């Protein structure tokens, strides 16, 4: 199943916090064909929305806080940001920012789960989130990488009510049984200093071609294009400023 629009509890938006917004605009335009528009209002702080056609698909932002890493962040849609933030705390997570209003477009909060992964809550008003999901160049899958998978399952099923489809090697998250993301257990191959985190995957037509395009545009291939048995073809990439993300082509897309 593919989510083709934001739904309550599901991933609805992804933002890149970067040390060089201008360079990020250039890189992702070359890779995905994104057209970036920066909000001119001073109080918007340089917030830049990337589009495919007329559809908003992601955001690029400066680093707003000292010590903030260059990284992609994932937002999940909620009906009530304040109530969801309270659930996060009750379930053992921590609210780092907010909840707070963003002009008239919505209300958001930044939180960290008990395993150390940061994520965002988004209560839509005039802006529901991504205008495209699971289309080439748009967000299509989100993956939690964590060293405490059992604690993560307990937390996210409590906060969002997700369904869990677990196999020996991989766990998938779903809403009413329709999977939108997964969870990978971080083992010794991951450096100790790499924290738990959410990794966005963008849909593409040609995974191998995008890996080559990323390298040509100044990025790095962290995981070479790989076909998952009975699953998608995937690669993990890093942009020139250091943000990590994935690309994939679903197994049923021939």
UniProtKB/TrEMBL annotation:
<protein>
    <submittedName>
        <fullName>VOC family protein</fullName>
    </submittedName>
</protein>
<dbReference type="InterPro" id="IPR037523">
    <property type="entry name" value="VOC_core"/>
</dbReference>
<dbReference type="InterPro" id="IPR052164">
    <property type="entry name" value="Anthracycline_SecMetBiosynth"/>
</dbReference>
<dbReference type="Pfam" id="PF00903">
    <property type="entry name" value="Glyoxalase"/>
</dbReference>
<feature type="domain" description="VOC">
    <location>
        <begin position="138"/>
        <end position="250"/>
    </location>
</feature>
<feature type="domain" description="VOC">
    <location>
        <begin position="10"/>
        <end position="124"/>
    </location>
</feature>
<dbReference type="InterPro" id="IPR029068">
    <property type="entry name" value="Glyas_Bleomycin-R_OHBP_Dase"/>
</dbReference>
<dbReference type="InterPro" id="IPR004360">
    <property type="entry name" value="Glyas_Fos-R_dOase_dom"/>
</dbReference>
